[in-house]
Amino acid sequence: MSQSFSIRLYVPTGDPKGVRIIQMPGWTGRGVVFPRARLDEASRRDEVRGVGVYVLWQAGEEGSALPRAYVGQSENVAMRIVQHDRGKDFWEHAIVFTNNDLTFNTAHAQYLEAQLLARASKANRSNLVNGNVPQAPDLSEMDRADADSFLENLLLCLPLVGVLFFEEPTIATSVSDDLVLRAKGVAARGVEDSAGFVVRAGSQAVATEVPSVPPSVHAIRSALLEKGVLVVDGPTLRFAQDYPFASPSTAASAVLGSSSNGRELWTDSTGRPLKAIQARLTEVTQ
To answer: For residues 80 and 88, is the Cβ–Cβ distance under 8 A?
Structure first.
């Protein structure tokens, strides 16, 4: 079972969508998340100056199902992001992590950068703007332990500000608890999880979309094919990894290549649809 934790989110200007400061009790790390429009304000804060790692991202544009993201590190993060403001057009949001522990140095930041890029590449939930995934620097056993601890806390903070593309789903339920979708000659298994609705690895998807497929569904399937999440498997497609979707309907639409109501199509072992399962759970909790 995951251990509970608390995070403090400070909004210095009173604008909940502006600059926000992230802290965890007992952690020497500091996070700052801000929209690009508030870069000038954010860059003046002490938490953004010095050695650190950062993520720039943009939500998926029309025709693209996945966010674009860039991961970097610098000895002076504020200055580096100001440079990106002039040289990188795509990004809309940024999050920076620095450390008020003076032993935190460039090698630690390079290690964090490499780890984050490796995780994002494996998760396949974003389009990375980075040209390549750098090798992590050699750290002493003690420094690597410190960096891994810092990374663990950093990863706890990211989902709270909408950065979800570094994580693969960790499913607590067993396969016997999966919901099933059978239609159009394919069979898929999935489960509701904190990550969203997760379609299990090995699930099938149709190879051909209907002519009236919504652009958003086409974009999702195209992105998953490009990433190798969906692979050709004879006359159908197959999910090569567990993959989370925002909703059961988005998952069903990706499987069937059409606009689909996932709450009706995903069923349990008795044939009961997800809609009825959710209704029953609501009754029990009232």
So the answer is: no
User: For residues 7-16, b (16+ Cβ closer than 10 Å) or e, as one string?
Assistant: eeeeeeeeee
Give the pLDDT band of residue 118 (cuts 50, 70, 90): very high
pLDDT confidence bin for 87, thresholds 50/70/90: confident
**How sure is the predictor about 193, in pLDDT bands with cuts at 50, 70 and 90?**
confident
For residue 122, give the amino acid letter.
Answer: K
**Chain Cα centroid distance, residue 92:** 16
Radius of gyration for the alpha carbons in the chain, expressed in angstroms and rounded:
21
Query: In 3D, which of 137, 157, 162 has the Cα closest to residue 147?
Result: 137
pLDDT value at position 6?
Answer: 93
pLDDT at position 284 is: 47
Helix (H) or strand (E) holding 52: strand 52-58
Beta-bridge mates of residue 69? 57, 128
- Among residues 248, 246, 266, the alpha carbon closest in space to that of 65 is found at 246
Q: What tokens appear for 1 in the block?
A: 């079972």
Per-state percent for the chain, helix, strand, coil, to nearest 5: 35, 25, 40
pTM over 0.90: no
Q: How far from 35 is each of 41, 86, 181, 253, CA to CA, in Å? A: 10, 15, 39, 32
Distance, CA of 152 to chain centre: 15
* Interval 9-41: pLDDT, tens: 999 999 999 999 999 999 999 999 999 999 999
**Is residue 184 exposed (0-12), middle (13-18) or buried (19+ Cβ within 10 Å)?**
middle
Q: Is 189 left (phi over 0), alpha (psi -120 to 50) or beta?
A: beta
